[in-house]
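Course exercise 7: structure representation. Students receive a sequence record and must write out the corresponding structure in token form. The form below is the worked example handed out in class, using Homoserine O-acetyltransferase (523 residues). Read each field label carefully; the graders check that inputs and outputs are placed in the correct fields and that the protein name is recorded exactly as given.

STUDENT ID: A-19
EXERCISE PROTEIN: Homoserine O-acetyltransferase
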Amino acid sequence: MAISSGKSSFKNLFLGKKGQSVGIVRSMNYKIPGPFDLESGKNLSGVKIEYEIYGKMNADKSNVILICHALTGDAHAAGFHQGDRKPGWWDIVIGPNKAFDTEKYCVICSNILGGCKGSTGPSSIDPETGKVYGISFPVITIRDMINAQKKLIEYLGIKQLFAVAGGSMGGMQVLQWTVSYPEMVKKAIAIATTASTTPQQIAFGAIGRKAITDDPKWNGGDYYGKKIPSQGLALARMIGHITYLSDASMQKKFGRLQQDSYVAGTKDTASASLSEFSSELSHEFAPNFQVENYLNHQGDNFTKRFDANSYLYITKAVDYFDLSKNGSLIEGFSGVTAKYLVISISSDWLYPPYQSQEIVSALTANGVDARYEEIRSQYGHDAFLLEEGQLSYLIRSFLSEVLVSDVMNRNFYTVSRDETIEHASRLMVKECVSHLPVISEEGKLEGIVTSWDITKAVACKINELDEIISRDVKYVYEDERIEHASSIMEKHSISALPVIDCEHRVIGIVTSESISALIGKFS
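STUDENT ANSWER:
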């Protein structure tokens, strides 16, 4: 395949039709065989993981992106279930021609272990007792969640994920994936998150949990089949929801507006003075500001879709999250190999930008290719669910940026200049290669020999390899963009390039075939 065809494909990566919905989707369920071991030392039997898939896997299943949801999310990240009015929770970036383009990628999202949307959690039936787990459900961690996801990924036959992405608690899962299974993740996108939960973040979680456990209807976690602790759960949600917003967004959305029912003869509540409402004031302390009514609405709706015990377990898992080792985040990220995009939100005070910057600093200290970006938004923490334009631009450019290191073959063969043509010929035939870098004793690049050179040598009855080496050899570095390698190959009519490090040592080889295969994924 001509290399020139690849150039146009790269140029067109950001062009195309307007983003579309994935349409009607359905959830599936995978049951993990045997006991599932937890970080606490306990285990669970019959663990189920709810998941959805958007797009198709390619032949070698190398185009899969795993989406990790936030605290109270679920597997339904995009499209519509039959009869739905609203799409999945991250529909703004998942679908044909969207940031996570389902024409190119296969996108998977699963409900976390401990959740209440199809995956095993406190509201599930304990197979050993036949009763609901309740608070007999063992303590879980973020690592447990991604270990369960790994079981699903293995079941689907995926050896390596092209990318893992998520915001908030989903970002924690992204970080944990790259720490626990570095060989399984090529690219990582962590948004509005932290690598170590701070005391302030723990404090908000603690208040929410106390609101639930202080509700008499919680009944020690045994409320299934009875009245649920809706008051406590709603209050927990209200507290949490405040942290997802910002002062600017609340000012813009609500200001000091009061409900119309508390305004006598006018709707211009923003400019009214307190004396104008004196006749409406009472000691009942009913919610009369619009922001109060909004929070009540959010709390009430939440109790209709979420389990109180799941909220307890998941928020506690967030509290326990800490990827530092011996007090060092640099040490905690020491084994990470994935390329990173870390995105913060300017107005996020739950997971403020400095925490994303700490992640990038620790990754960079380990030699990881990590890019930091900040979304400018007044929406606060929730901006990762709302800022479609900025998110799409950052995610698209990151996913489509392919470096030489992404496609080069690290299992390559070399020869030295004092070896024979017969040896080089036999090596090419045995290993089915057409290019052999010629290296010095120190591993430095001295030239290259091709199958065409061997053929010419035989025809001319040349016996010494040193006589046919091409010393004016073209090469690339692993951190260069693949378009650069492609242009060199096209300009000089060659089909392979040695990849060297800063000391001119050969560390791999990139071929036109590997580039063409890559382009096939994105075309």
